[in-house]
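Thread: "does anyone have the structure for this chain?"

Original post by V.I.:
We have the sequence but no experimental structure in hand. Need at least a predicted one for the grant figures.
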Amino acid sequence: APAPATSNKTPLLVVAAIAVIAIVVAAFFALRPAASEKPPAAESTRPTTGAKATAPVTPKVSDKSIAVLPFTNMSEEKDTGYFADGVHEDLLTNLALIPELKVVSRTTVVQYRDSKKTLRQIGDELGVAYILEGSVRRSGNKVRVTGQLINARTDEHVWARSYDRDLTDVFAIQASLSQEIASALQAAITPQAQKFIERRPTENPVAYDFFLKGRDVRNRARSGLPVPLKQAETLFQSAVEQDPNFAAAWGELAVVHALHVFWEIDHTPARLARADAAIANAVRLAPEAPDVINQVGTYAYYAHRDYARAMEQFEKLARLKPNDPTVFNSLGLIQRRQGRWAEALVNQRKAEELDPGNVSYSRNLEVTLELGRRWTEALTEEQHLITLVTDKLTEQSIAAGLVFRANGSRKESDAWLAGLSPEQADSPRGISLRKAVAQQLGDFAEFVRLDQIQPFFDDDGTERSRQAWSAAIVYAAQGDLAATRKRLAGFPNELRARMEHEPMNSHLWVELALMEALLGHSDEAVRLARKGEEMLPESSDALDGMNFSRWGLLLTYAWTGDKEKALAEIEHFLQVPNQSSGGVHLLRKNPWLTPLHGDPRFEALLNDPQNSEPLF
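Reply from O.Q.:
Generated one for you, tokens below.
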């Protein structure tokens, strides 16, 4: 499973994608990478209102393709489901090492847990020739794993296997199953793959148990949430204490520390030092192991934004796993951070082609299309995403918002609002979404009305300080400075207190700059915004450097009266891929740009047809 496979970040963007709550923080995406291909030509036609999703071309099903369904937990102790899931995930990891196999990812097959669909239906949906069903029963120091391989096209059983072993032999069971599957599908196992498949990561069953529990917590949690991240940290720490030679556990511990830094939960020197020490142990113990290579790349990405090193690691992993969609997805995510947009798009499309049911891959691809102002393609991808998720309400609002961003039509958003049931409209999430739509469309009176009903929405984990300044701007845009100050309340002091402990947290500097700008403290606002931009410049991160740091500097200039610099920044944003500006139609309604509205130079930039064309 990927480093932040919970990124499934993505999470912070779900509402922000249409809300334009001033600074759209780029989703903290799950990692996974792949090979470079010739980029497709950019779309040149203007988007059409209400564009329909086009049916994808169905690729020929490979005879060497397989989906391994989640293993059924047959243990009497039902709270051991994490163990069955761990055996399942490790088997998938082994199969991905076999070059000829096409293996559906864990995040896609997990939706078929306890499914009532026939195996033929599942095979058709996943585009695979074979399906493996299995179960795990754990009792004391014994484990029983069963598996049956089925031809999904004919519903015929190819074979059934059962393994009864000591708990310490679980890795041998996974290796045997991998070899049986490869043999049945006539897929050759290279000597290198054989070596990794037969490797025993640890001889300590207690350490392995802690490891599986930590990975289970990480897999189930949403991106950016501190509580499950701390739980995973404790479990991985326990694993390495039980077995100091457990390389994969050290690597996972390093990733957890790195995510604390990247998600700005704990951006302290002490946290970075723990990340550095943990990854050094993993590399010392197993430098060539695929899971450690993955973890080094993920650590480099999240702990230090060292995208060159991350790319190096995932390109190495791509040579070991040439058909692994997670590898293609990760390469695309890294290339976005490097500003290699067309290459990123190719790799993300390849990931989705290999794993079309993966919500994370679809969301990442849709965001990349937005970044390039490829609106029709983005809307098509969003409509595909709607078919994959359970929370269709949010995704439908995003789809309507995309049409507005593409051509300024608000009728789709109005239709979405009109179609809400009273229960949906008045639910906490419904009110949050309605606020987002009102802000996007410039319906500020409606936003204020809803904001007074529900000032905060905590279910998505967005910090209240961020919610406060993203609402305060609407009051400021209406000239109600008293309400602006009230809405910000004590949050500036809260951020300053955090900055004493996290001086390298660029988000805190930018957020405080925006608050100070709204409060009329111009010199301090500019100082803070410039510092935040210096800490995370566009040159070091083409995604967050634009979408947060530089965008925050632009907004600070606008609200502190420096129109010349603000307009120069707007011109730059219209020429470079980013989510924050959101296209010319969104810029016309953005409350943060109120000081520029009506300025002839601002209007000229928005009316220039070139500034609505695709960027790659």
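V.I.: this helps a lot. Confidence is low (pLDDT under 50) at residues 1-57.
O.Q.: and Residues 296 and 530 are 32 Å apart (CA to CA).
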